[in-house]
Write a structure and sequence with these properties.
- It is a single chain.
- By secondary structure, the protein is mainly alpha-helical.
- The protein has two domains: 150 residues, P-loop containing nucleotide triphosphate hydrolases (Rossmann fold), CATH 3.40.50; 78 residues.
- 62% of the residues lie in helices and 8% in strands.
- It contains eight helices and five strands.
- The longest helix has 92 residues.
């Protein structure tokens, strides 16, 4: 990296830090490497750095730790476990035996894999107090093996932006699937409601047809009953009329009147015919 951040006394950074802050630091450490920026956390005890952040750090430099208490012994064991093992070196014992200027070191190789832990001396830094001059900066830039590579500014998509794009695409796809699912559910619900309405209409039509059939049957029964009553009434009237005629025929007074009427009729008829025929005879005799 061309730019490196060193956070000294890192335990002060993570002490009582909320989970949201730790998550954001983990995210920054994970994504900032794509921009060519290095981050180092400097602390006396590796237990001061949360595990999820410690897991993002590939380069490790461990100076001496003295184990005087059970907690110190646990810290030594944790520090030894974070390094890649070396079959020729007892890491736990070496940590407690390191002298001034000595350290256990393990860096990432060209393939990004941690190298085997080695015991080494650390050279003191060569630096100066204050900023370098513009001439010195230009000389360092021209002498760098990366000269001519990063002069052109490029705003590349960071890992965060790529992940965010994928997450947004996945969220949009999930939202589209949810909307489609909701639309299908609404369509099925509408179809079910339509079937209910059609079923209710069919049921109402069946009930209406049943009621009309019952009404027609009842009307036919009423008409049949009326016809039967009319026939019985006509039959009764004919019977009464016949009885009246029979009684009138059998009445003695009516018989006398009938005989008298018959005799009178005969006399009238005889008189009329006698007058007619008698008148004609007298006229012929003269």
């Amino acid at each position: 990296p061309k730019l490196v951040f060193f956070f000294d006394e890192a335990h002060l950074l993570f002490e009582d830090a909320p989970d949201a802050l730790q998550d954001k630091i983990e995210q920054v450490v994970r994504l900032i490497r794509s921009k060519g920026v290095g981050v180092y956390f400097v602390t006396q005890n590796p237990m001061d750095v949360p595990d999820k952040i410690l897991g993002q750090l590939g380069n490790r430099i461990q100076h001496a730790l003295r184990a005087f208490t059970p907690r110190d012994q646990k810290a030594v064991q944790v520090a030894a476990d974070t390094f890649r093992s070396n079959p020729n070196l007892d890491l736990r014992a070496a940590i407690t035996e390191l002298g001034v200027g000595e350290a256990l070191v393990s860096f990432l190789d060209e393939k990004g894999a941690p190298s085997v832990t080695e015991r080494a001396f650390v050279l003191p830094p060569r630096s100066q107090i204050g900023a370098i001059t513009p001439e010195q900066r230009q000389a360092l830039l021209h002498a760098s093996i990366l000269a001519g590579t990063y002069e052109q500014v490029r705003d590349r998509e960071s890992a965060f932006e790529l992940l965010k794009k994928d997450a947004d695409a996945a969220a949009a796809e999930a939202e589209q699937a949810r909307l489609q699912k909701d639309q299908e559910a609404a369509q099925k619900k509408a179809e079910a409601e339509q079937k209910k309405v059609e079923s209710a209409q069919k049921k109402a039509e069946a009930e209406r047809a049943k009621a009309e059939a019952a009404a027609a049957k009842q009307a036919a029964q009423v008409a049949k009953e009326q016809e039967r009553l009319a026939k019985e009434q006509a039959k009764e009237q004919a019977r009464l009329q016949k009885e009246a005629e029979q009684r009138a025929k059998n009445d003695p007074f009516n018989k006398i009147l009938g005989n008298v009427g018959s005799q009178v009729g005969k006399e009238i008829t005889r008189g009329i015919f006698g007058t007619l025929f008698g008148g004609n005879s007298s006229h012929r005799k003269r």
